[in-house]
Predict the structure.
Amino acid sequence: MLLEVTELHAGIDGKEILKGLNLQVEVGEVHAIMGPNGSGKSTLSKVLAGHPSYEVISGDVLYEGKNLFELEPDERAREGLFMAFQYPVEVPGVSNSQFLRLAYNEKMKHLGQEELDPLEFNDYLKEKAKVVDMDPQFFKRSVNEGFSGGEKKRNEILQMAVLEPKLAILDETDSGLDIDALRIVAEGVNKLRGDDNAVILVTHYQRLLNFIVPDFVHVLADGRIVKEGGKELAIELEEKGYDWVKSAGR
Amino acid sequence: MMVAVIEKDRVEALKNFHTDPREPEWLRDLRQEAFLEFSERGYPTVRQEDWKYTNVAPVIGSMTVAFGRNGHGALKDPTHDERRLIEQFNFQRNGFTAENLARADLVSIVIEESSEPIELNSLVDDDSAHFPHRLITVKSGATATLIETYSSNASNFTNAAMQIVVEDNARLTHYRVQKESPEAVHYGVTEVSLGRDASYNSTNINLGGKLSRHDIEVKFTAEGGEAWVDGLYMINGTRHADTHSIIDHQVPNCTSHQNYKGVLNDKSRAVFNGKVFVRGNAHGTDAQQQNKNLLLSNEARVDTKPQLEIFNDDVKCSHGATVGQLEEEELFYLLTRGLPETLARNLLTYGFAEEIINKIGVEKIKAELDNAVLHRLATVL
């Protein structure tokens, strides 16, 4: 089991948002977590990534059999956990390529593998940029600074391509994207999904799932998974709306 | 009372202040005058408004440095222009400038045409006092780069002056790097005067010294001048770094840009005071001034005061100052990509300073700074 979430209760500022969430993800699977605003989707992403503002109240999360909460956010990342941010952060003055090379080399160091010098990394990065059709001129620019919404999301997927995570959590990656940008981002994710990794798509809308077809769909309402099924559940949800599952969950 | 005693001692010690008979009489008289000024005033105290955050006297009073040597003499026979420039030096600015002129090692460089960067390096390795005083003239139409570096590994005292004239249509790029030892006291003044359509682009890096102060004054004397006065002070430990700037728009249609950034760690303390004067006839002035500070420790402190004094309506001026800490969301973002916390903090600090570092067109200075920011800062909060 790659990820096993058991009876997770967590929140922020003393407010409980996740109220006993269970989730199991195996390698090679793509899971969609859908839910209305305020259902706890983003809280789940942030708790898994280790955001310091969120507190875990009770419950367990095992990642590759280890207690995830014993790892710092950067350790989780080096162990292969990746979160694509809903609102990617701008880091002025730090170039994309510099940042990505440092991140890549930290992971390599952790795995006891060879680090890449700037020239070698540049070749590697050019190759990876094809995944999201990104112009190499973005490498020199400051991380996300002055990027459009679509460019920021593409940059997140580029980072995913570079770091090759075992588990990628895409937090509302579709939000704010027009259809062309959505297609590029989704195609990028499809190229990266494989038998040796897993993806959790956190989304409000079914639209993304037309492009990235999940193996499982979980519906989150009021901090709990209230309905689970295959990809057809997303379509049913789109037709009937979230009120349908909210009442079903009670 | 300690301070008074020390000053009295110094006055005693300077009684055997001798001028060099090989120098022209006007210069010896001027030195004498400056020496008397210094004897009366001593080093600045916190009672002076411009020095209220920088308490110099006790720090200098506790130092033992060899004061006796008057090394002046490099400039034995100043030209008419050099004489005029020396006479224009505002030695009454403070006790340091008075002492500098009294004891100055005068050197003059006249740049006629574009050439390789001119390097003026001071390296001090004993507990001594030094009073370099350089006159730089960039002749009409010339382009030049000047690199001025101060380094030391002793409890030394540097009291430096630089007078720069950028003549009509001339361009000067000036890097000033102060990286003296953590025991050193550094005072420096830069006086710049710009001719018609002249350009002066300066980057002032302050990394060293137990206590350092840099006064920089840029005057526009003819229309069409443009100046960039930028800087980075990056200090740790209990270092104190003070920058005072004056940009004086005396004539119409000149442009000044000022961008100073500060990175403070541990218990270090910085002062930034920037004055921009726009005189009554200086219409068409465009003056911008900005000072941003990053505090990496709760115990670091900065006092920043940007000031605009405008006596003309037809101008474009802006100024601002900020003091902040590393953004937690930026830090989290870097952590989620696997960067260890120390590296993530250093990278964000680098990002803050990058605007100034990347301005530097001389690779070895830039590389040294890259390294200083990314690796030297031990940022533990």
Notes: Confidence is low (pLDDT under 50) at residues 68-72 of chain B. Residues 25-41 of chain B form the longest helix (17 residues). Chain B is about 25% helix and 40% strand.
